[in-house]
Amino acid sequence: MKLRKKELLETTDEDVKIIYGQYSAFRYKKIIAMVALFAILLTASLYGMTVGSYPITMGEVYQIIVDHLFDLGSPLENIDQRVVWDQRMPRLLTAIVAGAGLAVAGAAMQSMMKNPLADPYTTGISSGASFGAILAITFGISLGTFEAATITFAFVFSLIPATVIVLLSRFKKATAAMMILAGISVMYIFNAMTQYMLIVSDAEKMAAAYEWTVGTLNKASWSSLPLMASIVVAGSVALMILSRYLNAMNSGDNYAKTVGVNVERMRIIILVVISIVSASVVSFTGIIGFVGLVAPHVTRLFLGSDNRHLIPGSLLMGATMLVICDILSKSFTTTALPIGIVTAFVGGPVFLFLIIRQKKEVW
Amino acid sequence: MEIKLENLSFSYGSVPIFNDINLVIDKPELVCILGPNGAGKSTLMHCMNKLQTPTSGTVYLDGKDLKSYSLKELAKLVSFVPHSEDTTFSMSVLDTVLMGRMPHTGTIMSQEDVLIAAENIKLLGMQEFAMQGFDELSAGQHQKVMIARSLTQEPQVMLLDEPTANLDVKYQMLVMRLLRDVAKLKGITVITICHDLNVTSMYADRVVMLYDHHIYADGSPAEVLTKDNIKILYGIDCQIFDVQGRPHIALLDGDELDSHLGDNMVRKPQEKETE
């Protein structure tokens, strides 16, 4: 093979060299775009730390962060320090991790289903999570704390739709249509049970249950971060490794098989990864809508549809979008509006604008 | 690489597509499969790359049962150009062609992979479009990209399902000539489904006619593309001329092609009153 490579490079004619050069530039541009996106994320994060109802100046905030970073074990002495390090910091990191996880899951789901309307919740993850959480809330179930029970139940039940699809795939080919239809069926069943529980529960629990379904970062804490972050990181890495299979599957199941992809099995593997990533985010934050749908589309406008760029690009885009939405929610309301409302309210018009603006057909 | 079909049968439920087909393709040459619509050409091809499982019979590739190959092993030996490409989110032409390297490479594409893809893009005359989006191209250009992608897979056997369907006359000839030369120069067995009798006649080394659930005729264009065979396959009369040493088929209009438009028309146009 070594010899062949040398021979190839020497016999390469001008046109082939030109194509090669164009391709290098093309890929270089995408890397630049990703670096730019990362810079935006960093800027938004730094600014986001200074926004909040508790009055601390920008300089103080950074002073506290820098001081504490160099001396992580030191106790937090005053309210200022606690607000910055124990409230704003985990909230920011949760926004980054949740946004990244939902966007990566959404990008993979859209590519796998070959459907621009797909998002992380397409196969019924959100309805499963809602049911689980509301079950725990209305029955007042406690695993040590009520909070832990809600999270655990949401996580376990959000994986049920994917389990159903995996089991179904033993009897029926795991096609995109089969997955979507099975997911929708499970979703309706869960929704029916959720609605029943809401009807029979008292007003106080109903409010708590409803509040859970609207995605929020208000509950972010250091304790929930490690688990959520490690699942999102592992899942994103897995999906990046699988991105070339997603590319092949986009050319149709038949073609993907003839380049050696076991399409049905791959679809199941990807579904399981997407489900675990989304479930880990949803069970800690509730259902944050729109990021998982829109972040991949916005990323496609800049980076194209190649999943090898789309997946890492969506990761950055999702994180950035959620950090910015959180800044908006903290800036315009004193109570910090649940982020699920902000993402949809801001994301909708922005997305419509991009659809009108774009010249190239990405979809 | 030798492909051998032994007593191959396929049926969709109770509808038989073909029965008891025996065929050996053992030379690197351009083999064209001809047959009327619904004769089972595509199904036969899908049995050669595991997209369909025959109802009975065995396919041997290089002396080994096709079932013993994994999809990935098979992908290193056999490439496929589908009838059409249905992408939802399309990539650039070069990235599309690069997919052909999948069976051979890991996660990261090497410089060599990109060069092989670029060479094949040039071979098909698509160098101007290398960085364009696949969905910005015409149907004919799609087919050229798909053929470049198939060559990039560097297979021993190429299977193509109507690769010239959307091409203009020049590119039909160019692609068929290219496939013939690829077979000869690279030692690849090229099997393609065709509809155009004259393009087939011009470039095929061997023609296999599929009709009435079995192989009706098999041989060189001159042996297979006869007046009688065409009459039986398509029910059309023709005249055959010798052009450049190959049969040239001139199809003739006739009553057997009558659409019965007049009889089948439900609402007849009102007849004009004559004075």
Question: How would you describe this protein?
Answer:
The complex is a heterodimer of chains A (363) and B (275). By secondary structure, chain A is an all-alpha fold. Chain A contains 16 helices and no strands. In chain A, helix 4 (79-113) crosses helix 14 (291-303), helix 5 runs parallel beside helix 8 (176-200) and helix 15 packs across helix 16 (339-357). The two termini of chain A are 39 Å apart. Chain B is an alpha/beta fold and 275 residues long. Chain B contains ten helices and twelve strands. In chain B, the strands form three sheets. In chain B, strands 6-7-8-3-9-10 form a six-stranded mixed beta sheet, with helices on both faces. In chain B, strand 9 (206-211) and strand 10 form a beta hairpin. Chain A binds chain B through residues 1, 4-5, 8-9, 12-13, 15-16, 18-20, 22-23, 26, 110-111, 114-116, 241, 244, 247-248, 250-252, 254-255, 257-262, 300, 304-306, 360-363, and chain B through 46, 49-51, 70-76, 78-80, 82, 85-92, 94-96, 99-100, 102-103, 107, 111-112, 114-116, 118-119, 121-122, 127, 130-131, 133, 135-136, 153.
Contiguous low-pLDDT stretches of chain B (5 residues minimum) are none
Rounded to the nearest angstrom, the distance between the terminal CA atoms of chain B is 75 Å
CATH architecture call of chain A: Orthogonal Bundle
Question: On the 0-100 scale, what is the average pLDDT of chain B?
Answer: 90
**H/E order of the elements of chain B?**
EEEHEEHEHHHEHEHEEHHEEH
Structural class of chain B: alpha/beta
**Strand portion of chain A:** under 5%
CA radius of gyration of chain B is 21 Å
Largest sheet of chain A: none
Mind telling me the C-alpha Rg of chain A? 22 Å
Low-confidence stretches of chain A are none
- Report the strand count of chain B: 12
Oligomer: heterodimer
How do you describe this structure in short?
By secondary structure, chain A is mainly alpha-helical.
